[in-house]
From TrEMBL:
SUPFAM superfamilies: NAD(P)-binding Rossmann-fold domains. It comes from Pomacea canaliculata (Golden apple snail). Keywords: Oxidoreductase. GO terms for cellular component: cytoplasm. It comes from the Eukaryota. It catalyses: (15S)-hydroxy-(5Z,8Z,11Z,13E)-eicosatetraenoate + NAD(+) = 15-oxo-(5Z,8Z,11Z,13E)-eicosatetraenoate + NADH + H(+); 15-oxo-(5S,6R)-dihydroxy-(7E,9E,11Z)-eicosatrienoate + NADH + H(+) = (5S,6R,15S)-trihydroxy-(7E,9E,11Z)-eicosatrienoate + NAD(+); prostaglandin E1 + NAD(+) = 15-oxoprostaglandin E1 + NADH + H(+); lipoxin A4 + NAD(+) = 15-oxo-(5S,6R)-dihydroxy-(7E,9E,11Z,13E)-eicosatetraenoate + NADH + H(+). PANTHER family: 15-HYDROXYPROSTAGLANDIN DEHYDROGENASE [NAD(+)]. Signal peptide: none annotated. This is 15-hydroxyprostaglandin dehydrogenase [NAD(+)]. One of its GO terms (molecular function) is 15-hydroxyprostaglandin dehydrogenase (NAD+) activity. It is an enzyme of class 1 (oxidoreductase). The keyword Oxidoreductase applies. Catalyzes the NAD-dependent dehydrogenation (oxidation) of a broad array of hydroxylated polyunsaturated fatty acids (mainly eicosanoids and docosanoids, including prostaglandins, lipoxins and resolvins), yielding their corresponding keto (oxo) metabolites. Decreases the levels of the pro-proliferative prostaglandins such as prostaglandin E2 (whose activity is increased in cancer because of an increase in the expression of cyclooxygenase 2) and generates oxo-fatty acid products that can profoundly influence cell function by abrogating pro-inflammatory cytokine expression.
Amino acid sequence: MSLAGKVAFVTGAAQGLGKAFSEALLKKGAKVEAFETVISCFGGLDIMVNNAGIANEHNYALMVNINLTGVITGTNMAIDLMNREKGGRGGVIVNIASTAGITPEAYFAPIYTGTKHGVVGFTRCWSMNPYIAKMGLRFACLCPAFTDTQILCSTITDYPEDAQKIIQQVGINKVETVTEGFMQLVEDNQCNGAVMVITAQNGIQYHRKPHGISRM
Ligand SMILES: NC(=O)C1=CN([C@@H]2O[C@H](COP(=O)(O)OP(=O)(O)OC[C@H]3O[C@@H](n4cnc5c(N)ncnc54)[C@H](O)[C@@H]3O)[C@@H](O)[C@H]2O)C=CC1
Ligand SMILES: CCCCCC(=O)/C=C/C=C\C/C=C\C/C=C\CCCC(=O)O
């Protein structure tokens, strides 16, 4: 996808990964806008990035609301705006999950892990819908491991020493590496259903595609 003139919306773009993603999109000529502006000034949306997220096991209702319900709401709004069959221009929806959405290694954060598994499952399910081709839509999911942003300063109350050990073992991604992977997902029109995993040790990789239940 050429990004020149494309309209993008990134949730949670004030800092961290959301800010870096917005800057990378702007550099390639996209317009990164607030939702109201997207409709009133640009008449549509081409790239939706559901990025906002928190890590707080103690206020789990809030965390589920932001990390999972927020992604579902943002995706639904984007589908309505982008659906070619309803006058939209088509486009890509990238949902930001985590490696915690694939493996349950972060046992000190079961609810965070649950929200991120939800994001991966929700995104994969949409990507397998046979009607999205007519709608002009594609879906992708980005799963970074620990990355150098403010969320890493979240206080881990359960098994904090274990958590620190896990962070040391897994390593910490650079924001630039995660942004590079994100841009691949946005620009590669062939990557519907991609689940991209990014770790400090192995860099950018794609997680295998799931099979239907009859083929398990
Ligand atoms: N940094 C990391 O180690 C990793 C982060 N992630 C995910 O990446 C995403 C971005 O996080 P980071 O940039 O790392 O953290 P961050 O804490 O720097 O940024 C989070 C952003 O979300 C926004 N946000 C939080 N609640 C919101 C709400 N209710 N409405 C709108 N915006 C809200 C914040 O204002 C902030 O801009 C999150 O979904 C996080 O779970 C995934 C894997 C690793
Ligand atoms: C091996 C797991 C990789 C997880 C990557 C990730 O998403 C990183 C997030 C960054 C910071 C938060 C760390 C852990 C997970 C979240 C919740 C911590 C819970 C805080 C608490 O309330 O105890």
